[in-house]
Every structure is written in C-alpha cells, then in structure tokens.
C-alpha cells in the first residue's frame, strides 16, 4: 500500500478516504467509508479486476461495498464495475449523466471500447451525476463539476472544506491526457483549457488524480498541463501522434509481449488509430502508419524487440 506524506494522509483520514494508486493500465481507486459501508470512485481495467476486488476487499475490512462512482467511462476507470457488481449484489453504480444514453441500453457504437480496441464488460448504472449536483462520499458533500475535454462526459468531484479535488483524467501532475474528441475532428482543446481554468478557480489544495500519486502542487500541474495543451493546439498532428503512441502503449500494458505483426495489424484495423493517424479508408497507408508508430516506440526504447518461435516480438521495455 502506498504511504503518503503526513499532510496528505491526514486529509485523506479526515475525508474517510483511501487512495489505491494503481499502474497506468488501471486508474486509481478511491475507497470511502460511509455509514458502515464502502463507496468506490473508479474501478480500474478489466484485466486487473481480480486485483481490484482484493484491494477493495482489503480496504473495506469486511464492510460491504454499497456504491461505485465513475468519473468517466473510459475502460481503465470502469472496467471493474461488472466484477464489483457481481461480488456485491445491490451495488449502486453512479456515472456521469452525459453518458446515460450510451449505457441504457449498452451501446458499443457510442461507448469508446470498440473504437479503441479496449475491453469493458457491460454494467447497468442506477444513478447519474450532472454539473452542479452534490454527492455524499465518506459522509461529506462533494460538488460535481462537468469536465469535458479529455472526455466530453467526464466529471470532477470537489470537497470544499478540505479543497480536495478528484480530477479523473482532467488533471494529472505531470502529463496531459489525450483530448479524445480532437482525434475525431471534434473540438476539444478549448474545453480542456476551460476545465483547467475551472479547476484553478476551485483553488484545490489536494488533487487525487486518475493516474499517479496524490499531489498538492496544483499550480505547477496546471502550468504543465497548459503548456502541453498549448503545444498540442499549435501542432494538432503532434497530439495525434502522441495519442496513437499512448494508445499503443496502453494496449502493450495489457499484452506485455506480442508478435510485432499482430500489433501492427491491430493498430491498422482499430478505428481510433485510423482517425488519429488520418488513414480512414486507406489500408495501405494505415499499415505504413502503424509500422512507423511501432518503429518509433522501439527507437525511443518504450518497446523492445525480441524473437520467439522464429517470430518477431515486441514487448514493454521495462519487462
Ligand atoms: Zn480517461
């Protein structure tokens, strides 16, 4: 279990919260205690669902899990919902209201999973969060703020007394998450910039991000995100290339090692890459762009090449 600096640990205790910092394939999980029951914000990726169950069980110390809240419905934030609902029947699943029509009924075409080639087992939500709502977490009222940009439907959760922000993927300490609408030629950069302004106006003193450790130097994180966002706005092709790389890495975090050609073929046939790399309807160009993306990840040392059974393989460099 990660230990945090004393001031952060004290605030989390005060909020009846525990932050389970996960690897990048799974978003962090935040466990709250309320009325002898548990609540959980974000549930990780499906391939880590067993680990999520163990971690949440441990954090709850025998109490039942009553509610799951998702900041947004990317596969690394809600991939554990179905397993948790199976483990705790009657679990209430609360999601952003803007996603409601994509879930009821479950619509693979509207949700991002088919598009990104990622997996997420279906679940049924019972409650919805909209901008301006209040939500009880750990026995305290948390504000709900819309946070479009990275994901058009996403929400932020903010507790005013301690000025603690659950930022999802809208603000990380160092990096900036992909602005997904832009890959589909839909404006998203300006929304992302407005969300950073909105976060600044809330004056958070502690941020619990979707990925990475909790942090308190919010001004530095906002400055870094704004700088990165401005660079992407000035050169949208760089954002597209960055998005393609990040999505390949995400896939490799699940596979760890796979035949190089299988990875290239997967990239060249997965819709999000065709859009990001601007090769919709041009399979030859898609193959070349996919090969170039893998080659750059190898050249940069993010992936390494090997051979197994006479077949060229790629794997995560840190394996
Ligand atoms: Zn996300």
TrEMBL record:
This is Metallo-beta-lactamase domain-containing protein. The lineage of its organism: Bacteria, Pseudomonadati, Pseudomonadota, Betaproteobacteria, Burkholderiales. Residues 40-211 form the Metallo-beta-lactamase domain. It comes from the Bacteria. SMART domains: Lactamase_B (SM00849). It comes from Pseudaquabacterium pictum. InterPro entries: Metallo-B-lactamas (IPR001279), NDM-1-like (IPR050855), RibonucZ/Hydroxyglut_hydro (IPR036866).
